[in-house]
Inverse folding.
Protein backbone atom coordinates (compact mmCIF):
# COMPACT_ATOMS: atom_id res chain seq x y z
CA UNK A 1 0.00 0.00 0.00
CA UNK A 2 1.18 3.52 -0.85
CA UNK A 3 1.16 6.39 1.66
CA UNK A 4 -1.78 7.78 -0.31
CA UNK A 5 -3.76 4.60 0.27
CA UNK A 6 -2.68 4.64 3.91
CA UNK A 7 -4.07 8.10 4.52
CA UNK A 8 -7.25 7.37 2.55
CA UNK A 9 -7.95 4.27 4.60
CA UNK A 10 -7.46 6.29 7.80
CA UNK A 11 -10.01 8.84 6.57
CA UNK A 12 -12.39 6.05 5.59
CA UNK A 13 -12.47 4.88 9.22
CA UNK A 14 -14.01 8.19 10.32
CA UNK A 15 -17.80 8.31 10.82
CA UNK A 16 -19.77 9.38 7.76
CA UNK A 17 -16.82 9.05 5.38
CA UNK A 18 -16.88 6.42 2.66
CA UNK A 19 -14.07 5.30 0.36
CA UNK A 20 -14.82 7.89 -2.30
CA UNK A 21 -14.82 10.83 0.09
CA UNK A 22 -11.68 9.46 1.75
CA UNK A 23 -9.80 9.64 -1.56
CA UNK A 24 -11.23 13.06 -2.32
CA UNK A 25 -9.91 14.40 1.00
CA UNK A 26 -6.54 12.75 0.44
CA UNK A 27 -6.17 14.26 -3.03
CA UNK A 28 -7.25 17.61 -1.74
CA UNK A 29 -4.40 17.54 0.77
CA UNK A 30 -1.99 16.59 -2.00
CA UNK A 31 -3.01 19.68 -3.94
CA UNK A 32 -2.74 22.28 -1.17
CA UNK A 33 0.53 23.72 0.10
CA UNK A 34 2.52 21.21 2.17
CA UNK A 35 2.39 23.57 5.20
CA UNK A 36 -1.37 23.28 5.20
CA UNK A 37 -1.31 19.48 5.31
CA UNK A 38 1.29 19.61 8.06
CA UNK A 39 -0.83 22.03 10.06
CA UNK A 40 -3.68 19.52 9.98
CA UNK A 41 -1.32 16.73 11.01
CA UNK A 42 -0.01 18.82 13.91
CA UNK A 43 -3.53 19.69 15.08
CA UNK A 44 -4.45 16.02 15.13
CA UNK A 45 -1.21 15.14 16.85
CA UNK A 46 -1.66 17.80 19.53
CA UNK A 47 -5.23 16.76 20.14
CA UNK A 48 -4.33 13.10 20.53
CA UNK A 49 -1.43 14.04 22.77
CA UNK A 50 -3.11 16.52 25.04
CA UNK A 51 -6.83 15.74 25.26
CA UNK A 52 -7.75 13.42 28.13
CA UNK A 53 -10.78 12.21 29.99
CA UNK A 54 -11.54 14.30 33.05
CA UNK A 55 -11.18 11.98 36.03
CA UNK A 56 -14.25 13.52 37.67
CA UNK A 57 -16.84 13.94 34.93
CA UNK A 58 -15.31 12.01 31.96
CA UNK A 59 -15.45 15.10 29.75
CA UNK A 60 -12.72 15.43 27.15
CA UNK A 61 -10.34 18.21 28.05
CA UNK A 62 -6.73 19.33 28.05
CA UNK A 63 -6.74 19.68 31.79
CA UNK A 64 -7.70 17.23 34.50
CA UNK A 65 -10.00 18.17 36.16
CA UNK A 66 -11.64 19.72 33.09
CA UNK A 67 -12.54 23.40 32.68
CA UNK A 68 -16.03 22.82 34.11
CA UNK A 69 -15.03 20.75 37.12
CA UNK A 70 -12.26 23.19 38.02
CA UNK A 71 -14.26 26.39 37.50
CA UNK A 72 -15.26 27.80 40.94
CA UNK A 73 -18.00 29.89 39.34
CA UNK A 74 -20.02 26.81 38.31
CA UNK A 75 -23.03 25.86 40.40
CA UNK A 76 -22.04 22.75 42.35
CA UNK A 77 -25.56 21.81 43.43
CA UNK A 78 -26.64 20.56 40.00
CA UNK A 79 -25.15 17.91 37.72
CA UNK A 80 -26.31 17.49 34.16
CA UNK A 81 -25.86 13.92 32.90
CA UNK A 82 -25.19 13.49 29.17
CA UNK A 83 -24.47 10.50 26.93
CA UNK A 84 -21.36 11.83 25.21
CA UNK A 85 -18.79 14.55 25.84
CA UNK A 86 -19.88 16.19 22.58
CA UNK A 87 -23.32 16.88 24.14
CA UNK A 88 -21.74 19.22 26.70
CA UNK A 89 -20.83 21.81 24.11
CA UNK A 90 -24.44 21.89 22.81
CA UNK A 91 -25.93 22.31 26.27
CA UNK A 92 -23.39 24.77 27.55
CA UNK A 93 -23.60 27.06 24.55
CA UNK A 94 -27.39 27.22 24.96
CA UNK A 95 -26.63 29.36 28.04
CA UNK A 96 -29.41 27.66 30.02
CA UNK A 97 -27.19 25.75 32.40
CA UNK A 98 -24.38 26.81 34.77
CA UNK A 99 -23.85 23.63 36.80
CA UNK A 100 -21.52 20.66 36.41
CA UNK A 101 -21.61 17.81 33.92
CA UNK A 102 -21.23 14.05 33.94
CA UNK A 103 -20.59 11.99 30.80
CA UNK A 104 -22.17 8.51 30.91
CA UNK A 105 -20.41 7.25 27.82
CA UNK A 106 -23.59 6.01 26.12
CA UNK A 107 -26.93 4.71 27.35
CA UNK A 108 -28.43 1.42 28.42
CA UNK A 109 -28.81 -1.04 25.54
CA UNK A 110 -29.06 -4.71 26.55
CA UNK A 111 -29.02 -5.79 22.91
CA UNK A 112 -25.57 -4.25 22.57
CA UNK A 113 -24.46 -5.67 25.90
CA UNK A 114 -24.50 -2.25 27.56
CA UNK A 115 -25.65 -2.29 31.16
CA UNK A 116 -24.94 0.10 34.06
CA UNK A 117 -21.46 -1.40 34.54
CA UNK A 118 -20.48 -0.40 31.02
CA UNK A 119 -21.46 3.23 31.72
CA UNK A 120 -20.01 5.81 34.10
CA UNK A 121 -22.76 5.27 36.63
CA UNK A 122 -20.70 4.32 39.64
CA UNK A 123 -18.52 7.43 39.33
CA UNK A 124 -21.70 9.51 39.14
CA UNK A 125 -22.92 8.01 42.38
CA UNK A 126 -19.61 8.70 44.06
CA UNK A 127 -19.89 12.39 43.10
CA UNK A 128 -23.17 12.84 44.93
CA UNK A 129 -22.06 14.50 48.14
CA UNK A 130 -24.22 16.71 50.36
CA UNK A 131 -23.78 19.66 47.97
CA UNK A 132 -25.59 18.02 45.08
CA UNK A 133 -29.34 18.60 45.14
CA UNK A 134 -30.39 17.90 41.57
CA UNK A 135 -29.37 15.62 38.72
CA UNK A 136 -30.69 16.63 35.31
CA UNK A 137 -30.75 13.68 32.92
CA UNK A 138 -30.11 15.00 29.42
CA UNK A 139 -29.84 11.69 27.57
CA UNK A 140 -31.35 11.61 24.07
CA UNK A 141 -35.13 11.10 23.69
CA UNK A 142 -34.60 7.64 22.14
CA UNK A 143 -36.12 4.63 23.95
CA UNK A 144 -32.62 3.82 25.24
CA UNK A 145 -32.12 7.37 26.49
CA UNK A 146 -35.49 7.29 28.25
CA UNK A 147 -34.72 3.93 29.88
CA UNK A 148 -31.39 5.29 31.08
CA UNK A 149 -33.17 8.27 32.62
CA UNK A 150 -35.65 5.95 34.32
CA UNK A 151 -32.77 3.84 35.62
CA UNK A 152 -30.92 6.82 37.09
CA UNK A 153 -34.13 7.90 38.73
CA UNK A 154 -34.60 4.42 40.25
CA UNK A 155 -31.14 4.40 41.83
CA UNK A 156 -30.80 8.09 42.78
CA UNK A 157 -34.28 8.84 44.08
CA UNK A 158 -33.82 6.72 47.25
CA UNK A 159 -30.81 8.90 48.07
CA UNK A 160 -33.02 11.95 48.28
CA UNK A 161 -31.76 13.57 45.08
CA UNK A 162 -34.11 15.42 42.80
CA UNK A 163 -33.84 13.70 39.41
CA UNK A 164 -35.23 15.71 36.51
CA UNK A 165 -35.60 15.17 32.80
CA UNK A 166 -35.50 17.74 30.01
CA UNK A 167 -38.91 18.84 28.80
CA UNK A 168 -40.18 17.39 25.54
CA UNK A 169 -39.62 19.45 22.47
CA UNK A 170 -36.32 17.97 21.44
CA UNK A 171 -36.73 16.09 18.18
CA UNK A 172 -37.59 12.49 19.10
CA UNK A 173 -34.88 10.11 17.99
CA UNK A 174 -32.75 13.13 17.13
CA UNK A 175 -29.52 13.77 18.89
CA UNK A 176 -29.12 16.46 21.47
CA UNK A 177 -25.90 17.32 19.76
CA UNK A 178 -27.78 18.65 16.75
CA UNK A 179 -30.57 20.52 18.55
CA UNK A 180 -30.34 24.31 18.47
CA UNK A 181 -29.51 26.41 21.52
CA UNK A 182 -32.95 27.95 21.97
CA UNK A 183 -34.62 24.52 21.94
CA UNK A 184 -32.15 23.18 24.47
CA UNK A 185 -32.53 26.22 26.75
CA UNK A 186 -36.32 25.81 26.66
CA UNK A 187 -36.04 22.07 27.38
CA UNK A 188 -33.79 22.87 30.36
CA UNK A 189 -36.11 25.55 31.71
CA UNK A 190 -39.11 23.22 31.43
CA UNK A 191 -37.44 20.21 33.06
CA UNK A 192 -39.59 18.03 35.28
CA UNK A 193 -39.09 15.59 38.11
CA UNK A 194 -39.16 12.04 36.70
CA UNK B 1 -59.95 11.09 -3.74
CA UNK B 2 -59.39 8.68 -6.59
CA UNK B 3 -56.34 7.36 -8.35
CA UNK B 4 -56.19 9.16 -11.66
CA UNK B 5 -52.79 7.99 -12.83
CA UNK B 6 -50.34 5.34 -11.75
CA UNK B 7 -46.79 5.01 -13.00
CA UNK B 8 -44.62 2.02 -12.28
CA UNK B 9 -40.92 1.73 -12.89
CA UNK B 10 -39.17 -1.57 -12.31
CA UNK B 11 -41.86 -2.57 -9.83
CA UNK B 12 -42.29 -6.39 -9.81
CA UNK B 13 -42.91 -7.41 -13.43
CA UNK B 14 -43.66 -3.85 -14.64
CA UNK B 15 -40.77 -2.19 -16.45
CA UNK B 16 -42.09 1.24 -17.26
CA UNK B 17 -45.86 1.44 -17.27
CA UNK B 18 -48.29 4.33 -17.01
CA UNK B 19 -52.02 3.74 -16.52
CA UNK B 20 -54.91 6.16 -16.19
CA UNK B 21 -58.10 5.25 -14.36
CA UNK B 22 -61.50 6.93 -14.35
CA UNK B 23 -63.13 8.01 -11.10
CA UNK B 24 -65.42 4.99 -10.90
CA UNK B 25 -62.53 2.52 -11.16
CA UNK B 26 -61.55 -0.46 -13.26
CA UNK B 27 -61.94 -4.20 -13.67
CA UNK B 28 -58.55 -5.76 -14.34
CA UNK B 29 -58.57 -9.07 -16.20
CA UNK B 30 -55.68 -11.29 -17.11
CA UNK B 31 -54.40 -14.81 -16.71
CA UNK B 32 -52.58 -15.85 -13.58
CA UNK B 33 -49.08 -14.48 -13.15
CA UNK B 34 -49.55 -11.43 -15.42
CA UNK B 35 -49.29 -8.68 -12.79
CA UNK B 36 -52.83 -7.95 -11.52
CA UNK B 37 -51.94 -8.39 -7.87
CA UNK B 38 -48.64 -6.62 -8.44
CA UNK B 39 -50.54 -3.56 -9.65
CA UNK B 40 -52.77 -3.47 -6.55
CA UNK B 41 -49.69 -4.04 -4.42
CA UNK B 42 -48.15 -0.93 -6.00
CA UNK B 43 -51.24 1.19 -5.29
CA UNK B 44 -51.35 0.08 -1.67
CA UNK B 45 -47.62 0.66 -1.39
CA UNK B 46 -48.43 4.36 -1.75
CA UNK B 47 -50.73 4.07 1.27
CA UNK B 48 -48.40 2.40 3.79
CA UNK B 49 -45.03 2.19 1.96
CA UNK B 50 -44.91 -1.54 2.47
CA UNK B 51 -46.13 -4.53 0.53
CA UNK B 52 -49.55 -5.82 1.59
CA UNK B 53 -48.24 -9.29 0.75
CA UNK B 54 -45.57 -8.91 3.40
CA UNK B 55 -42.76 -8.81 0.84
CA UNK B 56 -39.60 -6.92 1.64
CA UNK B 57 -38.91 -3.77 -0.40
CA UNK B 58 -36.01 -5.56 -2.03
CA UNK B 59 -38.35 -8.19 -3.47
CA UNK B 60 -40.46 -5.54 -5.18
CA UNK B 61 -37.61 -4.49 -7.46
CA UNK B 62 -37.92 -6.02 -10.92
CA UNK B 63 -35.57 -8.97 -11.30
CA UNK B 64 -32.16 -7.77 -12.44
CA UNK B 65 -32.79 -4.08 -11.65
CA UNK B 66 -31.45 -1.94 -8.84
CA UNK B 67 -34.41 0.22 -7.84
CA UNK B 68 -38.13 0.74 -8.28
CA UNK B 69 -40.39 3.77 -8.26
CA UNK B 70 -44.17 4.00 -7.94
CA UNK B 71 -46.06 7.26 -8.33
CA UNK B 72 -49.77 7.95 -8.12
CA UNK B 73 -51.72 11.09 -8.91
CA UNK B 74 -54.79 11.37 -6.71
CA UNK B 75 -57.56 13.71 -7.54
CA UNK B 76 -60.37 15.04 -5.38
CA UNK B 77 -63.96 15.34 -6.54
CA UNK B 78 -64.19 17.51 -9.63
CA UNK B 79 -60.41 17.79 -9.86
CA UNK B 80 -60.46 20.03 -6.79
CA UNK B 81 -57.33 18.87 -5.02
CA UNK B 82 -54.53 16.95 -6.63
CA UNK B 83 -51.69 15.28 -4.89
CA UNK B 84 -48.87 13.15 -6.17
CA UNK B 85 -47.65 10.44 -3.83
CA UNK B 86 -44.48 8.70 -4.90
CA UNK B 87 -42.16 6.15 -3.38
CA UNK B 88 -38.98 4.47 -4.46
CA UNK B 89 -36.49 2.05 -3.11
CA UNK B 90 -32.97 1.32 -4.21
CA UNK B 91 -31.06 -1.81 -3.44
CA UNK B 92 -27.70 -0.20 -2.76
CA UNK B 93 -27.94 1.87 0.32
CA UNK B 94 -31.25 0.13 1.10
CA UNK B 95 -32.79 3.49 0.81
CA UNK B 96 -36.51 4.23 0.70
CA UNK B 97 -37.61 7.62 -0.51
CA UNK B 98 -41.14 8.98 -0.23
CA UNK B 99 -42.36 12.24 -1.71
CA UNK B 100 -45.63 14.15 -1.49
CA UNK B 101 -45.97 16.54 -4.42
CA UNK B 102 -42.23 16.26 -4.82
CA UNK B 103 -41.39 17.12 -1.20
CA UNK B 104 -39.83 14.58 1.08
CA UNK B 105 -41.48 14.46 4.54
CA UNK B 106 -39.10 14.43 7.52
CA UNK B 107 -40.00 10.82 8.20
CA UNK B 108 -41.55 8.16 5.95
CA UNK B 109 -44.26 7.66 8.57
CA UNK B 110 -45.55 11.19 7.96
CA UNK B 111 -46.43 10.26 4.40
CA UNK B 112 -48.65 7.28 5.15
CA UNK B 113 -52.40 7.26 4.59
CA UNK B 114 -52.51 9.92 1.87
CA UNK B 115 -54.21 7.64 -0.63
CA UNK B 116 -56.97 6.18 1.49
CA UNK B 117 -57.24 2.62 0.23
CA UNK B 118 -58.28 -0.86 1.36
CA UNK B 119 -57.37 -4.20 -0.22
CA UNK B 120 -59.56 -7.27 0.02
CA UNK B 121 -57.64 -10.42 -0.87
CA UNK B 122 -58.41 -14.12 -0.94
CA UNK B 123 -55.82 -14.66 1.80
CA UNK B 124 -57.66 -12.33 4.21
CA UNK B 125 -59.29 -15.45 5.60
CA UNK B 126 -55.96 -16.06 7.34
CA UNK B 127 -56.70 -13.09 9.58
CA UNK B 128 -59.67 -15.00 10.94
CA UNK B 129 -58.43 -18.57 10.67
CA UNK B 130 -54.67 -18.18 11.16
CA UNK B 131 -52.47 -17.29 14.11
CA UNK B 132 -52.81 -14.15 16.25
CA UNK B 133 -49.90 -12.40 14.52
CA UNK B 134 -52.03 -11.69 11.44
CA UNK B 135 -54.78 -10.20 13.63
CA UNK B 136 -52.34 -7.91 15.42
CA UNK B 137 -50.90 -6.87 12.07
CA UNK B 138 -54.41 -6.02 10.88
CA UNK B 139 -55.02 -3.85 13.95
CA UNK B 140 -51.62 -2.20 13.67
CA UNK B 141 -52.12 -1.18 10.05
CA UNK B 142 -55.57 0.33 10.43
CA UNK B 143 -54.68 2.05 13.70
CA UNK B 144 -51.47 3.46 12.24
CA UNK B 145 -53.66 4.98 9.55
CA UNK B 146 -56.47 6.37 11.69
CA UNK B 147 -55.04 6.99 15.16
CA UNK B 148 -52.54 9.84 15.51
CA UNK B 149 -49.49 8.75 17.50
CA UNK B 150 -50.23 5.03 17.21
CA UNK B 151 -47.44 4.20 14.78
CA UNK B 152 -44.81 6.03 16.76
CA UNK B 153 -45.96 4.34 19.99
CA UNK B 154 -45.81 0.99 18.20
CA UNK B 155 -42.31 1.57 16.88
CA UNK B 156 -41.07 2.60 20.29
CA UNK B 157 -42.85 -0.32 21.94
CA UNK B 158 -41.17 -2.82 19.60
CA UNK B 159 -37.76 -1.36 20.27
CA UNK B 160 -38.30 -1.41 24.04
CA UNK B 161 -39.61 -4.96 23.85
CA UNK B 162 -36.52 -6.14 21.97
CA UNK B 163 -34.24 -4.43 24.52
CA UNK B 164 -36.21 -5.75 27.49
CA UNK B 165 -36.15 -9.30 26.10
CA UNK B 166 -32.39 -8.95 25.62
CA UNK B 167 -32.12 -7.98 29.25
CA UNK B 168 -34.33 -10.83 30.49
CA UNK B 169 -32.39 -13.37 28.44
CA UNK B 170 -29.15 -12.45 30.14
CA UNK B 171 -30.48 -12.14 33.66
CA UNK B 172 -31.58 -8.66 34.63
CA UNK B 173 -31.07 -6.66 37.79
CA UNK B 174 -34.33 -5.39 39.24
CA UNK B 175 -33.66 -1.65 38.88
CA UNK B 176 -32.57 -2.17 35.29
CA UNK B 177 -35.71 -4.13 34.49
CA UNK B 178 -37.80 -1.47 36.17
CA UNK B 179 -36.13 1.15 33.95
CA UNK B 180 -37.40 -0.63 30.82
CA UNK B 181 -40.82 -1.26 32.37
CA UNK B 182 -41.50 2.47 32.42
CA UNK B 183 -41.33 2.78 28.63
CA UNK B 184 -42.99 -0.57 28.03
CA UNK B 185 -46.00 0.46 30.09
CA UNK B 186 -46.10 3.96 28.63
CA UNK B 187 -46.12 2.93 24.97
CA UNK B 188 -47.89 -0.40 25.48
CA UNK B 189 -50.85 1.19 27.26
CA UNK B 190 -51.29 3.63 24.43
CA UNK B 191 -51.50 0.71 22.01
CA UNK B 192 -53.95 -1.26 24.19
CA UNK B 193 -56.20 1.73 24.67
CA UNK B 194 -56.33 2.48 20.95
CA UNK B 195 -57.06 -1.16 20.09
CA UNK B 196 -59.77 -1.47 22.74
CA UNK B 197 -61.46 1.71 21.61
CA UNK B 198 -61.31 0.79 17.93
CA UNK B 199 -62.85 -2.63 18.50
CA UNK B 200 -65.55 -1.22 20.75
CA UNK B 201 -66.45 1.40 18.15
CA UNK B 202 -66.52 -1.05 15.24
CA UNK B 203 -68.11 -4.11 16.90
CA UNK B 204 -71.71 -3.36 16.01
CA UNK B 205 -70.93 -2.55 12.46
CA UNK B 206 -68.84 -5.71 12.08
CA UNK B 207 -71.78 -7.81 13.26
CA UNK B 208 -74.07 -6.00 10.84
CA UNK B 209 -71.78 -6.63 7.87
CA UNK B 210 -71.45 -10.31 8.77
CA UNK B 211 -75.18 -10.65 8.90
CA UNK B 212 -75.69 -8.92 5.60
CA UNK B 213 -73.07 -11.05 3.84
CA UNK B 214 -74.03 -14.42 5.29
CA UNK B 215 -77.72 -13.66 5.47
CA UNK B 216 -77.85 -15.05 9.00
CA UNK B 217 -75.90 -15.65 12.18
CA UNK B 218 -74.70 -12.85 14.41
CA UNK B 219 -70.91 -12.74 14.74
CA UNK B 220 -69.15 -10.90 17.48
CA UNK B 221 -65.75 -9.19 17.35
CA UNK B 222 -63.95 -8.94 20.65
CA UNK B 223 -60.61 -7.55 21.76
CA UNK B 224 -58.67 -10.01 23.85
CA UNK B 225 -55.78 -8.11 25.41
CA UNK B 226 -52.85 -9.73 27.16
CA UNK B 227 -53.06 -7.06 29.87
CA UNK B 228 -56.31 -7.71 31.79
CA UNK B 229 -58.69 -5.05 30.50
CA UNK B 230 -59.48 -2.44 33.15
CA UNK B 231 -63.05 -1.70 34.23
CA UNK B 232 -64.57 -4.68 32.44
CA UNK B 233 -67.93 -3.77 33.90
CA UNK B 234 -68.32 -0.62 31.81
CA UNK B 235 -66.77 -2.20 28.75
CA UNK B 236 -63.12 -1.37 28.16
CA UNK B 237 -63.74 1.40 25.69
CA UNK B 238 -64.37 3.53 28.75
CA UNK B 239 -60.96 2.87 30.22
CA UNK B 240 -58.50 5.74 29.85
CA UNK B 241 -54.72 5.78 29.65
CA UNK B 242 -54.27 5.83 33.43
CA UNK B 243 -56.38 2.71 33.92
CA UNK B 244 -54.50 0.82 31.22
CA UNK B 245 -51.14 1.91 32.62
CA UNK B 246 -52.11 0.74 36.06
CA UNK B 247 -53.44 -2.59 34.79
CA UNK B 248 -50.26 -3.10 32.76
CA UNK B 249 -47.99 -2.30 35.71
CA UNK B 250 -49.91 -4.67 37.98
CA UNK B 251 -49.77 -7.51 35.47
CA UNK B 252 -46.02 -7.04 34.99
CA UNK B 253 -45.69 -7.28 38.76
CA UNK B 254 -47.67 -10.51 38.80
CA UNK B 255 -45.67 -12.02 35.93
CA UNK B 256 -42.22 -10.80 36.89
CA UNK B 257 -41.06 -14.06 38.47
CA UNK B 258 -42.14 -16.07 35.44
CA UNK B 259 -40.62 -13.53 33.07
CA UNK B 260 -37.26 -13.75 34.76
CA UNK B 261 -37.40 -17.53 34.73
CA UNK B 262 -38.44 -17.75 31.09
CA UNK B 263 -36.24 -14.87 29.93
CA UNK B 264 -38.90 -13.19 27.81
CA UNK B 265 -41.60 -10.52 28.12
CA UNK B 266 -44.91 -12.24 28.79
CA UNK B 267 -47.27 -9.27 29.09
CA UNK B 268 -48.21 -6.63 26.57
CA UNK B 269 -49.86 -5.85 23.25
CA UNK B 270 -47.41 -8.14 21.41
CA UNK B 271 -49.48 -10.97 22.89
CA UNK B 272 -52.94 -9.54 22.17
CA UNK B 273 -55.57 -11.20 20.05
CA UNK B 274 -58.92 -10.55 18.43
CA UNK B 275 -61.70 -13.07 18.92
CA UNK B 276 -64.45 -13.80 16.44
CA UNK B 277 -67.40 -15.50 18.04
CA UNK B 278 -70.37 -17.02 16.37
CA UNK B 279 -73.85 -17.41 17.83
CA UNK B 280 -75.60 -16.03 20.87
CA UNK B 281 -73.73 -15.08 23.98
CA UNK B 282 -74.50 -18.17 26.04
CA UNK B 283 -73.39 -20.79 23.53
CA UNK B 284 -71.08 -18.75 21.31
CA UNK B 285 -68.19 -20.60 19.66
CA UNK B 286 -64.90 -19.33 18.30
CA UNK B 287 -64.95 -18.84 14.57
CA UNK B 288 -61.27 -19.59 14.25
CA UNK B 289 -61.63 -23.21 15.40
CA UNK B 290 -65.27 -23.97 14.79
CA UNK B 291 -66.33 -21.80 11.87
CA UNK B 292 -66.89 -23.21 8.41
CA UNK B 293 -64.69 -21.92 5.59
CA UNK B 294 -67.65 -19.84 4.36
CA UNK B 295 -68.24 -18.31 7.79
CA UNK B 296 -64.55 -17.49 8.12
CA UNK B 297 -64.50 -15.82 4.70
CA UNK B 298 -67.58 -13.83 5.60
CA UNK B 299 -65.89 -12.53 8.75
CA UNK B 300 -62.76 -11.65 6.78
CA UNK B 301 -64.74 -9.59 4.27
CA UNK B 302 -66.70 -7.93 7.07
CA UNK B 303 -63.44 -7.03 8.78
CA UNK B 304 -62.23 -5.29 5.62
CA UNK B 305 -65.55 -3.47 5.41
CA UNK B 306 -65.16 -2.05 8.91
CA UNK B 307 -61.59 -1.17 8.04
CA UNK B 308 -62.89 0.81 5.07
CA UNK B 309 -65.54 2.43 7.23
CA UNK B 310 -62.97 3.42 9.82
CA UNK B 311 -60.70 4.88 7.18
CA UNK B 312 -63.57 6.83 5.64
CA UNK B 313 -64.46 8.28 9.04
CA UNK B 314 -60.89 9.30 9.76
CA UNK B 315 -60.04 10.74 6.34
CA UNK B 316 -63.33 12.33 5.52
CA UNK B 317 -63.33 10.93 1.99
CA UNK B 318 -64.34 7.68 0.36
CA UNK B 319 -61.50 5.18 0.30
CA UNK B 320 -60.39 3.36 -2.82
CA UNK B 321 -61.60 -0.22 -2.61
CA UNK B 322 -59.40 -2.89 -4.16
CA UNK B 323 -60.65 -6.45 -4.53
CA UNK B 324 -58.01 -8.98 -5.51
CA UNK B 325 -59.52 -12.17 -6.81
CA UNK B 326 -62.00 -12.43 -3.94
CA UNK B 327 -65.11 -13.58 -5.74
CA UNK B 328 -63.70 -16.96 -6.72
CA UNK B 329 -63.45 -17.79 -3.02
CA UNK B 330 -66.99 -16.87 -2.05
CA UNK B 331 -70.03 -18.97 -2.88
CA UNK B 332 -72.28 -17.22 -5.44
CA UNK B 333 -74.97 -15.94 -3.03
CA UNK B 334 -72.31 -14.49 -0.71
CA UNK B 335 -70.41 -13.00 -3.62
CA UNK B 336 -73.59 -11.36 -4.84
CA UNK B 337 -74.33 -9.91 -1.42
CA UNK B 338 -70.80 -8.50 -1.15
CA UNK B 339 -71.20 -6.83 -4.53
CA UNK B 340 -74.54 -5.49 -3.32
CA UNK B 341 -72.93 -4.08 -0.17
CA UNK B 342 -70.16 -2.43 -2.13
CA UNK B 343 -72.69 -0.88 -4.46
CA UNK B 344 -75.02 0.26 -1.71
CA UNK B 345 -72.53 2.24 0.32
CA UNK B 346 -70.51 5.33 -0.16
CA UNK B 347 -67.20 3.94 -1.28
CA UNK B 348 -64.81 5.53 -3.67
CA UNK B 349 -63.08 4.19 -6.73
CA UNK B 350 -63.15 0.40 -7.15
CA UNK B 351 -60.25 -1.61 -8.58
CA UNK B 352 -61.16 -5.25 -8.98
CA UNK B 353 -59.15 -8.15 -10.44
CA UNK B 354 -59.99 -11.61 -11.70
CA UNK B 355 -58.71 -14.07 -14.28
CA UNK B 356 -62.28 -14.49 -15.53
CA UNK B 357 -64.39 -11.46 -16.49
CA UNK B 358 -67.53 -13.47 -15.69
CA UNK B 359 -66.61 -13.48 -12.00
CA UNK B 360 -67.05 -9.74 -11.62
CA UNK B 361 -70.77 -10.28 -11.87
CA UNK B 362 -72.87 -7.19 -11.69
CA UNK B 363 -69.85 -5.12 -10.67
CA UNK B 364 -67.93 -5.88 -13.84
CA UNK B 365 -70.71 -4.56 -16.06
CA UNK B 366 -70.44 -1.08 -14.69
CA UNK B 367 -66.65 -0.77 -14.70
CA UNK B 368 -64.36 -0.19 -17.67
CA UNK B 369 -62.20 -3.23 -18.35
CA UNK B 370 -58.42 -3.35 -18.55
CA UNK B 371 -56.32 -6.28 -19.64
CA UNK B 372 -53.07 -7.12 -17.84
CA UNK B 373 -50.57 -9.19 -19.82
CA UNK B 374 -46.99 -9.78 -18.77
CA UNK B 375 -46.51 -6.48 -16.98
CA UNK B 376 -48.40 -4.37 -19.54
CA UNK B 377 -51.81 -2.81 -18.91
CA UNK B 378 -54.20 -1.91 -21.70
CA UNK B 379 -57.73 -0.49 -21.58
CA UNK B 380 -60.18 -2.62 -23.52
N1 LIG C 1 -39.46 -8.68 -8.43
C1 LIG C 1 -40.03 -9.17 -9.55
N2 LIG C 1 -39.50 -8.91 -10.77
C2 LIG C 1 -40.06 -9.41 -11.89
N3 LIG C 1 -41.16 -10.16 -11.91
C3 LIG C 1 -41.73 -10.44 -10.73
C4 LIG C 1 -41.21 -9.97 -9.51
N4 LIG C 1 -41.98 -10.42 -8.50
C5 LIG C 1 -42.95 -11.15 -9.08
N5 LIG C 1 -42.80 -11.18 -10.42
C6 LIG C 1 -43.64 -11.85 -11.39
O1 LIG C 1 -44.95 -11.38 -11.27
C7 LIG C 1 -45.83 -12.41 -11.62
C8 LIG C 1 -46.95 -12.53 -10.60
O2 LIG C 1 -47.72 -11.42 -10.74
P1 LIG C 1 -49.09 -11.29 -9.95
O3 LIG C 1 -49.45 -9.87 -9.98
O4 LIG C 1 -49.00 -11.95 -8.63
O5 LIG C 1 -50.03 -12.17 -10.90
P2 LIG C 1 -51.61 -12.14 -11.03
O6 LIG C 1 -51.90 -11.45 -12.31
O7 LIG C 1 -51.96 -13.59 -11.08
O8 LIG C 1 -52.17 -11.44 -9.83
C9 LIG C 1 -45.05 -13.69 -11.70
O9 LIG C 1 -44.92 -14.03 -13.05
C10 LIG C 1 -43.72 -13.33 -11.11
O10 LIG C 1 -42.67 -14.00 -11.74
MG1 LIG D 1 -53.17 -12.32 -8.24
ZN1 LIG E 1 -14.75 17.36 34.50
Amino acid sequence: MSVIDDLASEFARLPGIGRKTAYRLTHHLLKVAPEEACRLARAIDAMAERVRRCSICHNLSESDPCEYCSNPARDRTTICVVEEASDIRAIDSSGGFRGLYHVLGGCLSPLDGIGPDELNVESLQSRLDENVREVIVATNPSVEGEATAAYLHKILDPRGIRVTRLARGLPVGGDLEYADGVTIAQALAGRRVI
Amino acid sequence: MFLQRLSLQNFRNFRDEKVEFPEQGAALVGDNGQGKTNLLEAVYYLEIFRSFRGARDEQLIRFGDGHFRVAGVLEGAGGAERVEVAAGYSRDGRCKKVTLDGHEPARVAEGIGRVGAIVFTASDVEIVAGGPGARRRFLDIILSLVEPGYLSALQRYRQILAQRNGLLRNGASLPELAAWNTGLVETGSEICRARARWVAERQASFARYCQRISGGQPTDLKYSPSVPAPSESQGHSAAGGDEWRQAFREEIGRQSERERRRGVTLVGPHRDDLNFRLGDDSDAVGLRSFGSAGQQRTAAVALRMVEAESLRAARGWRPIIMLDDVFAELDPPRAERVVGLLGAEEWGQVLVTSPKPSEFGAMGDSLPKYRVVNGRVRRL
About this structure: Residues 142 and 173 of chain A are 5 Å apart (CA to CA).
